[in-house]
């Protein structure tokens, strides 16, 4: 395999689906890559989480094999950041044989996990199984921002693993904000984009934002997610994930 910054790949050896392998131990990553090549996959190997995240965005791999203890950006945080923009299947590798660690990985968005040491043939079989499952399962349109998760296909909203009861208009308003983080919108813009009206009572927007704050804010009287931009309107500031706080 030839160098690519701190990543290694060899697309000529196998024309099959591209798999990103994030593993800092060169002996393990080499072994994984060789087995994947033999099975018909193209392996791209990265040695740290930050580079791996960059490659995931640049190369759009069909699958990711992820070491939970990767340097630079650990596997849990890598997966959480990845899931804000990608549904690519992920298998997480861990040397920690504890239910809590496996659960954290699955909650961050991993599709499966494998505990070290493992048989390379089992890894390949897991990859094939997850690829088959994700290719045949129904499409799910999910948005994540911190501990706020919106599943558009199921019309379900969870915050800190707690189901929120939103009206259809509140749901549409929240989805619009999450699709446009960090941008301030006037009330008339929100009326046009969410209500699909060129004119209307701006107080309708105010009322819905207030009700939405009561459901998604820790303290609705001091909003940190749906913030007021004085003289303009409202802005969505994505909440930080629990492992990003402090």
Automatic annotation (TrEMBL):
UniProt cross-references to SMART domains, sorted A to Z: REC, Trans_reg_C
Domain Response regulatory: 18-131
Keywords: DNA-binding, Phosphoprotein, Transcription, Transcription regulation
Residues with PTM 4-aspartylphosphate: 67
InterPro entries in the record: CheY-like_superfamily, OmpR/PhoB-type_DNA-bd, Sig_transdc_resp-reg_C-effctor, Sig_transdc_resp-reg_receiver, WalR-like, WH-like_DNA-bd_sf
Source organism superkingdom: Bacteria
Keyword hit for DNA-binding: yes
Domain OmpR/PhoB-type residue range list: 140-238
Record-linked Pfam families: Response_reg (PF00072), Trans_reg_C (PF00486)
DNA-binding region as annotated in the record: 140-238
UniProt xrefs under PANTHER family: DNA-BINDING DUAL TRANSCRIPTIONAL REGULATOR OMPR, REGULATOR OF RPOS
Protein name: Response regulator transcription factor
Organism: Saccharopolyspora gregorii
